[in-house]
Amino acid sequence: MTWGRIIAVVGPSGVGKDSVIRRLCAVGSNLQCVRRVITRPSDAESEDFEGVSDEEFSARLAAGDFALHWRAHGLNYGVPATELAVISQGVDILVNLSRAVLHDAAESFSDMEVISLTASPATLAARLKGRGRETAEDIGRRLSRSNDDWKRTLPDHVLIHEIANDGSLDDTVRHLRARLCPSSRPFTHDAPN
Ligand SMILES: Nc1ncnc2c1ncn2[C@@H]1O[C@H](COP(=O)(O)OP(=O)(O)O)[C@@H](O)[C@H]1O
Ligand SMILES: O=P(O)(O)OC[C@H]1O[C@H](OP(=O)(O)OP(=O)(O)O)[C@H](O)[C@@H]1O
């Protein structure tokens, strides 16, 4: 049995990572989303994650539960190793990662690809405001966070799909699906955002 790929979705806050992940998982038969652990109260509006306290996060980290973990936006994020187990059954997994952990991830997983989403600063600002999850101050901090070094640190075998998500989500997902699953049939989507 061939192992599945770990497909990391990265990009600035508000670019559409969670939206793209949700939509790709809804239309892709061999794609599974990862449920991250985050020290943020659970929120039905955005991604499906497990919200935990700082204490619980630390305990799970100490127990070795996380395959990857990082800190950003004043929050702790973890990818439970159990969420990645399906890779050994040939399933591809999609996961929203910090650009700061891509190098470590590429060392841990032999078959990794990266979806790098981009959008103009004006688009990002409008989307974060529209999402309404953060305060104006927090949005300002998210917009000023940059991380452009990650590409240089990745081994050559990691395939990078760079896609602008300034246009419609449908177009982005169609484009990505063709790149990730070239043999799949085109779809007419009717999945929710
Ligand atoms: N292509 C798109 N067109 C319009 N709105 C979008 C698009 N992609 C995402 N959005 C919206 O932008 C906001 C931020 O998207 P989200 O997926 O939460 O981004 P991220 O996970 O990168 O922070 C959400 O309100 C989402 O519905
Ligand atoms: O190091 P960076 O590449 O800048 O990424 C920092 C964090 O931003 C995203 O988190 P999250 O999904 O909570 O935030 P977002 O929805 O605002 O992007 C991403 O998953 C990382 O956890």
Task: Walk me through what this model shows.
Strand 5 and strand 6 (75-80) form a beta hairpin. Residues 187-193 have low confidence and may be disordered. The chain has a domain at 6-34 and 88-180: P-loop containing nucleotide triphosphate hydrolases (Rossmann fold, 3-Layer(aba) Sandwich). The chain is globular. The protein contains seven helices and nine strands; from the N terminus they run E-H-E-E-E-H-E-E-E-H-E-H-H-H-E-H. The strands form two sheets. It has a five-stranded parallel beta sheet, with helices on both faces. The protein is an alpha/beta fold. The longest helix has 12 residues, at 169-180. Bound molecules: adenosine-5'-diphosphate and 1-O-pyrophosphono-5-O-phosphono-alpha-D-ribofuranose. Keywords: ATP-binding, Kinase, Nucleotide-binding, Plasmid, Transferase. Belongs to the ribose 1,5-bisphosphokinase family. Residues 4-181 form the Guanylate kinase-like domain.
Task: Name the CATH superfamily assignment of the domain at 6-34 and 88-180.
Answer: P-loop containing nucleotide triphosphate hydrolases
* Unique ligands: adenosine-5'-diphosphate, 1-O-pyrophosphono-5-O-phosphono-alpha-D-ribofuranose
Find the structural class using helix and strand composition: alpha/beta
Taking all Cα atoms into account, the compactness measure Rg is 16 Å
Query: Could you name the CATH topology of the domain at 6-34 and 88-180?
Result: Rossmann fold
What proportion of the residues form beta strands (DSSP E)?
15-25%
Q: How far is the first residue's CA from the last residue's CA?
A: 33 Å
Quickly name the level 1 CATH class of the domain at 6-34 and 88-180. Alpha Beta
Largest sheet: 5 strands, parallel
Which descriptor suits the 3D outline?
globular
Helix content: 25-40%
Number of helices: 7
Low-confidence stretches: 187-193
The CATH architecture classification of the domain at 6-34 and 88-180 is: 3-Layer(aba) Sandwich
SSE string: EHEEEHEEEHEHHHEH
The strand order across the widest sheet is 2-7-1-8-9
| Mean pLDDT over the full residue set | 90
Total strand segments = 9
Catalytic activity: alpha-D-ribose 1,5-bisphosphate + ATP = 5-phospho-alpha-D-ribose 1-diphosphate + ADP
Pfam families: Guanylate_kin
Family: Belongs to the ribose 1,5-bisphosphokinase family.
InterPro entries: GK/Ca_channel_bsu, Guanylate_kin-like_dom, P-loop_NTPase, PhnN
